[in-house]
Amino acid sequence: MDDTKVHTSRSAPGAMAEDALDAQIGYNLRRASAFALNDFAVELTDAALRPVTYAMLALIDEKPGIRAAELCRLLGMKSANMAPLLAELEERGLVERDDHAGDKRVQVLALTKAARAAMPGWRQQVRRHEDRFLHRLTKKERATLLRLLRLIWTDDD
User: Fold this and answer.
1) Residue 109 burial (10 A CB sphere; 0-12, 13-18, 19+)
2) Angle CA(46)–CA(51)–CA(52) in degrees, nearest 5?
3) Residue 57's closest CA among 106, 142, 119, 101?
4) Per residue in 129-144, pLDDT tens?
5) d(C-alpha 49, C-alpha 122), whole Å
6) Alpha-carbon torsion 104, 94, 60, 33, what sign?
7) Is the pLDDT of residue 7 over 50?
């Protein structure tokens, strides 16, 4: 028997239990996402980082010299959406943009010294955040959730 709690009393007359809102995966993903985003905002308030800006900084930290176009691709963002975020991070003294040595039309990104120094603390805050909002899951369940989520959005066919 499935452990999912389905509230059929709120369903439209004649609706199947699997049609109830709280039995729909998209609804539950959105609720979990909202919960995670709210908790992330609380944890990283002092750093003034949002999930998207943290993700940008984390990838630049993992891949110093990454091209802006590659950062867009890895994060699934359009460059028009990323440009103002990069400008914000640069203005805050967290990211440096330099011309690529072989192609002056290409910009490469690196964290500033201040951002490199702050990154271990930010990563620890993110771990704290994830531990807090995933506290009901075992280590094995977390690994399963991560694997299943990656199956949804990756193209590893």
Assistant:
1) buried
2) 120
3) 119
4) 999 999 999 999 999 9
5) 9
6) negative
7) no
The count of other CB atoms within 10 Å of the CB of residue 94 is 22
Q: Which residue has the tokens 């995933």?
A: 134
Q: 3-class SS at 96? A: strand
Where does 76-134 have alpha helices with state H?
79-91, 113-133
What are the residue ranges of helices labelled H in the chain? Answer: 25-43, 51-62, 68-75, 79-91, 113-133, 139-153
**Residue owning tokens 């499935």:** 2
The per-residue pLDDT for 107 is 81
Percent of the chain clearing pLDDT 90 (strictly above): 75
